[in-house]
Amino acid sequence: MLLDLLLLKGSVAREPNDTGRFNMLAGTNRSVYRWMLDPAPRADYVIAVGSCAAYGGVPAAGSNPTDAVGLQFEGADSGGALGADFRSRLGLSVINVAPHPGWMMETILALTTNDLAATDLDSYGRPKFVANHLAHHGCSRNEFYEFKASAETMSERGCLMEHLGCKATQAVGDCNQRSWNGGGSCTKGGYACIACTSPGFEGAQNFLETAKLAGIPVGLPTDMPKAWFVALAALSKSATPRRVRLNATADHVVVPPGRATTKGKP
C-alpha cells in the first residue's frame, strides 16, 4: 500500500529496550515507534506536525526516560526514529511544520502541486516560507523593542525580551505577520515567545525570565553581533521618548501619541 502523506503529531518514544511500548497505538498491540517504521518508506511525503514530532519536544526534556525523539531529529541532532538518512518515496526528508493552520495548509498545498523540493527546506527540515521569518517581524511591541523600553512584569505593554524571556528575535516563524488561527500570537496576547518552533526550546529553566550574563541577555538577535547590539541598546535607551518609556511599564496606554498639526491650522 502506498500513501500520499503520512503525518505524525507527538514525539516517538523508543523505550523500553527499543520497543517503543511506552506509547502504544490503540487497538493494534503495536507501539507508535514500530508502527511508523513500516509505512514511512511507502509515503510520498512524511510530515512531522509540531516540535515534539519533529525534534522530541517537551517529552524529551530533562532525563527523557522514554527516549522520546522526533521522526528525523533528536533535539538539534539528525537521527530520530527514522534515522538521518531516511527519505520518503519521492526523495524528501521529513518535513517539520509547527501546527499553525496556515503553515500546514500551505505545506500540503505546495506538496500536492510539486512546489516544495529539498532545497525549499532549511537545515532543520522546516519549509523556508516559514523559516525565513522571525516571530519578531511584525510584533505589535516593536516600537518598545526599538527603544529598548521593557516591560518589567507580566501584563505590561513594553518589550518582553530584556526581562521576561521573549525569544522572538531568535525564533523561526511569521507568527506576528500571519496570526495563529487568524487572530493572535503569543506576544500579542502578552506572553513571551518561547521559540517553540525550534529544537531544544523545552530546555529553558524559566520561560518567563530572561537568562542574563553580567546583566546582559544571553539570547540576543541571531543576525547581529552582540557588541553592536549592546552599544545600540544603550543609545536607543538614551533616546526613548517619554510616551514610550511610560507606556512600557503600564497595562494600558498612559500617554497617547502626540497629534500632528498642519502649519497654520489648529
What does this structure look like?
- This protein has helices at residues 32-37, 51-55, 101-112, 128-131, 142-146, 226-238, 242-248; strands at 3-9, 12-13, 24-25, 30-31, 43-49, 68-69, 73-74, 77-78, 95-97, 212-213, 216-217.
- By secondary structure, the chain is an alpha/beta fold.
- It folds into two domains: 3-131, 3-Layer(aba) Sandwich (Rossmann fold), CATH 3.40.50; 134-253, Cytochrome-c3 Hydrogenase, Chain A, domain 2, CATH 4.10.480.10.
- The strands form five sheets. A three-stranded parallel sheet has the order 1-5-9.
- The longest helix is centred in the C-terminal third of the chain and has 13 residues, at 226-238.
- The radius of gyration is 22 Å and the shape is elongated.
Name of the CATH architecture of the largest domain: 3-Layer(aba) Sandwich
Tell me the total number of β-strands: 11
Estimated radius of gyration: 22 Å
Q: CATH class of the largest domain, please? A: Alpha Beta
Uncertain runs are none
Assign the structural class, choosing from mainly alpha, mainly beta, alpha/beta, alpha+beta, or little secondary structure.
Answer: alpha/beta
The coarse overall form would be elongated
H-E order: EEEEHEHEEEEHHHEEHH
CATH fold field value of the largest domain: Rossmann fold
Domain count: the total is 2
Major sheet strand order? 1-5-9
* End-to-end distance: 76 Å
Rounded mean pLDDT score: 92
The biggest beta sheet reads: 3 strands, parallel
Discrete helix count = 7
Compact overview of the structure:
The chain has 266 residues and is α/β, with parallel strands linked by helices.
